[in-house]
Amino acid sequence: MSLELQKLESEIEVYRSQLINHPLYKRLNSLDALKTFMKEHVFAVWDFMSLLKSLQRGLTCIDLPWHPVGNPETRRLINEIVWGEESDVDAQGTAASHFELYLGAMAEIGADTQPILNFIQSCNFSNLETELQSVEIQSNTKEFVQFTFSIIRENELHKLAALFTFGREDLIPDMFIQIVKSIEIESGVSFAKLVFYLERHIEVDGGEHGPMALNMIKELCGADEQKWMEAISISIEALKMRIHLWDGVLQAIESQEVAINH
User: Fold this and answer.
1) Rg over CA atoms, the chain
2) Which end of the chain is more exposed for a tag (fewer CB within 10 A), N or C?
3) Which residues contact 99 (CB under 8 A, 6 or more apart)?
């Protein structure tokens, strides 16, 4: 690993630790709590796909007539990641994006998919922030999505790559699968699709996409000290926003528990 990447990872470690040890996980102890988590978290799964496609748009040619864009190695990296995220397969071998896998897992356990489905059907790039305000989700979740799209709108590739690599889905710890399996046993509801989604993410992020994303950052920042500083800044802000998202989900679960007990 390059010295620049080592410095970046050192700078963000405290925030990664806060996320992995967030108190939210201790409150994910029931089917209702998990449904609440997924209702909010699916917006992060969705905007991850938009972030990914913004990188593909910047690093490859998607216009006609075609012409080669940028570094061939970086093109290959992003296209392989897009292929894996947008065109993976489910447990039966049927093609599906990771977002669609997550929606299937939500439906399986009875989590509310209407907020995200209504939102993506009504929003476009110009009205996204306005449409987001009318969705019945936590304000923290809305602010998380707004942050992602603020970086997308800047369209600076090294910042997008940093956000993609250090602020995203690998931040759900391995223990989350054990939490989910415990709730599955207690509730008697099948969580097969959710467990598949989580295990697939760990496999892909650790074995394929994680190293690819690190190489992409090295390529895009190169020897430019300013870009490395900005990559560190964006990574820290992304992790803080993920903590903010988790804070909001925790608040929603606690509010739900209070309502049930009264």
Assistant:
1) 18
2) C
3) 42, 45, 46, 48, 49
Q: How far is CA 144 from the centre of its chain?
A: 10
| pLDDT (tens digit per residue) in 7-48 | 999 999 999 999 889 999 989 999 999 999 999 999 999 999
Phi, psi of 96 (to 5 degrees): -165, 145
Block residue for tokens 């800047």: 154
The whole-angstrom separation of Cα 89 and Cα 91 is 7
- Interval 164-180 mean pLDDT: 76
Neighbours of 8 (CB within 10 A): 24
| Two structure tokens written together for 89 | 């397969």
| Of 103, 33, 64, nearest in space to 255 by CA | 33
Residue 222 tokens read as 């190169």
In terms of Cβ atoms closer than 10 Å to its own Cβ (0-12, 13-18, 19+), residue 234 is buried
Those residues whose C-beta lies under 8 Å from the C-beta of residue 228, and which sit 6 or more positions away, are 4, 7, 8, 221
Q: pTM of the full predicted structure?
A: 0.93
